[in-house]
Design goal:
The protein is about 80% helix and about 0% strand. It is mostly helical. It binds fe (ii) ion (2 copies).
């Protein structure tokens, strides 16, 4: 029954037609139906695992911990300007999910005596990039992180025998996959009036951003990927596949939003003509 209700929530949201209210329902539901983590496990990570994953986890834990103040402020503005008042709440719940990821990782790190990082240059760089720019670019940066995370947590799960860390990775993976649809949906709505040329430019911008981020992530996390049996070529090829999937999500959301806008305009014109 539990599994069935999870599948229902999951399938409902893998859709470009999901509204902010649908996302709120899902995220509230998700916070109450987290996968169990076997915190009582006595497993201690081996020296080999520690060398491969400890700094890598600390960097991701730091990256997941942000309060997202700039994003939430920008989301509030979009909420008001687009009369989608529920979007601001959905954005707040999204940040709460990311902070839950940070909390899960930090609890694991504490159990395994892995020190936390206070600061890291890649975290400062991506936070700075998000803060400087508008909501569209902020989300383009965020979705880059979601796509990278989707591949990273799968590799991290394969890099360890810790039942605790494997369960955490499963939960985060499940969430990050949804986040791509959440962020892709918003990008699609923001871009609903764009020309084909402008949309193609957006896709290229996303690819350039992602290519840079791929190099940055490999530099700091290669040992964790290698421990999972993922070499550089495989890392690039498979991550790029996820990027192209995400671009398709954004495109499908843009088409849907553009169609809805067309229907809305037609309705308003028809009402005007009948008055
Ligand atoms: Fe996350
Ligand atoms: Fe995420």
């Amino acid at each position: 029954m539990e599994g069935q209700s999870h599948r229902q929530a999951s399938s409902h949201l893998l859709d470009e037609s999901s509204t902010s209210a649908d996302w709120i329902d899902y995220m509230v539901w998700n916070s109450e139906h987290q996968n169990p983590v076997p915190w009582d496990s006595e497993y201690r990570i081996t020296l080999e695992e520690r060398k491969a994953i400890s700094k890598s986890i600390a960097i991701f834990q730091l990256g997941e911990s942000g309060e997202g103040r700039h994003f939430i402020n920008q989301a509030r503005k979009l909420s008001v300007n687009s009369a989608d008042l529920e979007y601001a709440e959905a954005a707040r719940l999204f940040i709460a999910e990311e902070q839950r990821h940070s909390w899960l990782l930090s609890r694991f790190m504490e159990k395994q005596e892995i020190p936390r990082l206070r600061s890291h240059w890649s975290d400062r760089f991506f936070r700075g990039l998000r803060k400087c720019l508008n909501l569209e670019v902020c989300i383009a940066v965020l979705i880059t992180g979601e796509i990278l995370a989707r591949y990273y947590y799968a590799a991290l799960r394969d890099a360890t025998d810790s039942p605790v860390l494997r369960a955490i990775c499963d939960q985060i993976l499940q969430d990050e996959e949804k986040h791509i649809f959440f962020q892709g949906g918003t990008l699609g709505r923001i871009r609903r009036h764009r020309s084909p040329w402008s949309l193609a430019a957006c896709d290229e911008f996303q690819r350039v951003l992602f290519a840079g981020a791929l190099c940055v992530v490999w530099k700091d996390h290669a040992r964790a990927y290698r421990k999972a049996g993922v070499g550089f070529r495989k890392y690039i090829a498979e991550s790029w596949g996820y990027l192209e999937d995400a671009i398709q999500v954004i495109r499908a959301s843009q088409s849907f939003a553009s169609e809805q806008e067309g229907l809305r305009v037609t309705r308003v014109e028809a009402q005007g003509a009948s008055c």
